[in-house]
Amino acid sequence: MFTLAKRNLLQDKLRLAVTLTGVIFAVVLIIIELGLFVGFVRTTSALIDHSQVDLWVTSNHVPYLDLGVPLNERKLYQVEAVPGVARADKYIVRYTRWNRLDGGQNQIEVVGFNPDSTWGGPWNVVQGSIHDLKTPDGVMIDDVYKKKLGVTQIGQVFEINGHRARVVGFTHGIRSFTTSPWVFTSFRNALDYAPLNDNQTTYILVRVESGAHIEQVRQNILQRVDGVEVLTTREFSRMTQNYWTFTTGAGIAILLAAVLGVIVGFVVVAQTIYATTMDHIKEFGTLKAMGAPNWYVQKVILIQAGISAAMGYVVGMMLSGLIVRFGQPAGAPILLNWWMALATLALTLFMCAGAALISINKVTRLDPATVFKG
Amino acid sequence: MNTAIIVRQVRKTYLEGESVVPALHGVDLEVRSGEVVVLMGPSGSGKTTLLSIMGCILRTCAGSVEIEGQEVAHLGENDLPRVRREHIGFIFQSFNLFPTLTAAENVELVLDVKGIRGAQARKQARELLDSVGLAEKYDTVPANLSGGQKQRVAIARALAGDPGIILADEPTAALDSHTGRAIIQMLRDLAHQRNRAVVIVTHDPRVLEFADRTIYMEDGRIVNDAVEMPASAPGARNVSSSCGSVPARVPA
C-alpha cells in the first residue's frame, strides 16, 4: 500500500514539485505569520510581563499599557498602607519626543521606573548597567533602535522634550510593539521627559507580602483607594494583548494571512492529488475489483497526502528557520518554538488530508465494473 | 467436481437516459471447479455483464448467485469486496497491471489486500511468478514486459490468495496468436491441474479448442450451452457459427 502510494506520487516529478510548492508555501506562511502573531502579542505586553510585580494600579478605564492616565502620587501612599502590600513603586509610561543630532525627531515611549527595585525596568542589558540610570539624565535604549534614534555609542547626549538625555547603556531584544521605541530611565528623569507634574505617576506597581493572597490584596486596595482600578499582572497583560490583537485589527490581519496560506496550500494540494488520482483511476478500479475495500484505496490516497505533507513540511520548516534567522536583525519579532513547529505539522497534515478528501470521495464512488470497459 | 458458481434466473437491466435496457433475461448457469467455461457472443449479448455478476462486481436485479456455496445476491455493498477477495481472481483484457510497481510488487499488492504482507507476501509472489514462467522478471516493471509476460503477471496476480474461481475478460485480445494460445493453455492448466473454476469471456474462436464448455449468448440469453469435444474425437466436425468456425459440440 505504501509502495503504491509512494510510486504514484514520484511517477510525475513535475506534479510532485507543484504539490510540494503548495505545501511549502502554506508551511512558511503559517510559521512566519504565527511567529509574527505570537511575537507581536508578546511584544505588546512585554513591559508588563517583565515587570516582576503582582498588581498594577491604574486610573479608571485604562484600556492598555500605552494609554495610562496620570494618577496623583497620594495614591501610592494609600496603596502602601493597604494590608498585604509589601511594597509599591511609581511607574511612568508616556509618549514623548526624541530629538536626533541631525535635527530630526522621533516619537518615543519613555519608561520611568525605580532603578533600585528594577520593577518594570529593562532586561537583557548588554552594555552599561541599570545602576547608571540613577544619574540625572541617564537613558537606556535597545540596540535595534540605534540607527532610528541616531545613537552610535554610550555617552552621546540627546534631547527629550527639551531636557538633556545621555545614553548610558543598551539592551538587546527589547522591541516596542508600536513604532515608538521604549526609552528606559529613572522615574525622576521620566517626570521631565513625559512630562508629568512632580506629584503624578501613570501607574503604581505593587508586590504583595510573602504568603499573602494576591486577589485578597487586590480587593483590599480597591476598598481603601478611590478612583483606581487594580489588575493582576496577568490580567493587565491579557488586556493589552487583546486590545492590540482584536480592537485594532492588527493581530487579526496577521492571522488572516496565515489562514490564507492554509487555503492556498489546500487548493494546490487538492488539485494535484486529484490529478494524480485521476491518472491512476483505472488502477484504483482494479484494486476494488480485486476486493480491496474502500478504506484500503482511501488509505493509499491518504498516504500520498501524508508523504506530500511530510516532505513539504520539512522543506518549509527549513526555509522558515532561515527567514526567522535573517529576519531578527531587521527587527521583525518572529518567534519560533517547538510547540509552534508541532502545531504547524498537525495543521499541515490536516490540510493535506482535507485536500485529499475530494479524491477520496472519487475513488469511494468508483464503480469497479469500469475495469471491464477496456 | 464441486459447483463453484451457480446462477439462477438472473436478470439485469441498465438505465440509459430515460430508457431501461435489459442486459440479462433470466440466465441460469453452473460452473464447476476444474472446468474451463467460455462465454461467447456478439457485442451486447450480456457476456461481460454476466461475468461481472459472477465476479460480484455488479448486482443483479433479480435471481440468485452462489459463489462457492455462499449466496451473494443479497449481500450488502460492503460484503461484496470480501467475497471477491476470498474467492475470485480477475484477468483483464488490457492486463490492468500497476505501471509503477514491478511484477513481484503487482502480485504482492493483491496479497496485501488479502492480508498477507512482508516476507511471506514476497515469497508467495515469487512462487506465483515462478509458476507462470517469470522467475527472471520479479523486478521488472510492466513497461519492460511483453504482452504475453504482462498477462502472465496478471495470471499470477489473479492466483494470489488462492481463489477458487478465475474470471478472465478477453485475456487474449491484446496478444498475438502464439502468445494467446500459451495464455489459454495456462488457464486450462489452472482448471485441470489446480481444480479452479475458470470462466473466459472472449470473441476469439481459437480459445474454444481449450474449453470444456462453451456458452453462446445473444440478447441477454444463453442460446446454447455445449460441452466441447476434442478435435480428435470420433465424429468431430467443424460447425460454423456467428463466432466463426468451432470444433464439434454436444449439449451440456
Comma- or semicolon-separated keywords:
heterodimer, A: 374 residues, alpha+beta, 6-stranded mixed barrel, two-stranded antiparallel ribbon, 12 strands, elongated, B: 252 residues, alpha/beta, Rossmann fold, 4-stranded antiparallel sheet, 29% helix, globular, disordered C terminus
Explained architecture:
The complex is a heterodimer of chains A (374) and B (252). Chain A has 374 residues and is of the alpha+beta class. Chain A has two domains: 2-43 and 251-373, no CATH class; 61-226, no CATH class. Chain A has helices at 2-11, 13-44, 46-49, 74-80, 146-149, 187-193, 214-224, 233-247, 250-279, 281-289, 294-327, 338-355, 357-365; strands at residues 55-59, 71-72, 85-99, 105-113, 125-127, 138-142, 157-160, 163-171, 182-186, 200-201, 203-208, 228-232. In chain A, strands 3-4-9-6-8-7 form a six-stranded mixed beta barrel. In chain A, strands 2-10 form a two-stranded antiparallel ribbon. In chain A, β7 (157-160) and β8 form a beta hairpin. In chain A, α2 (13-44) packs across α8 (233-247) and α2 (13-44) runs antiparallel to α9. The two termini of chain A are 25 Å apart. Chain B has 252 residues and is of the alpha/beta class. Chain B has a single domain (3-251), classed as 3-Layer(aba) Sandwich (Rossmann fold), CATH 3.40.50. Helix content of chain B is 29%, strand content 31%. A seven-stranded mixed β-sheet of chain B has the order 6-7-8-3-9-10-13. A four-stranded antiparallel β-sheet of chain B has the order 2-1-4-5, covered by helices on one side. In chain B, β9 (213-218) and β10 form a beta hairpin. Chain B is globular. Residues 230-252 of chain B have low confidence and may be disordered. The A-B interface holds A 1, 3-4, 7-8, 10-11, 282-283, 286-294, 296, 368-369, 371-372, 374 and B 48, 51-52, 55, 57-58, 78, 81-86, 88-90, 92-94, 96, 98-101, 105, 109-110, 112-114, 157, 169.
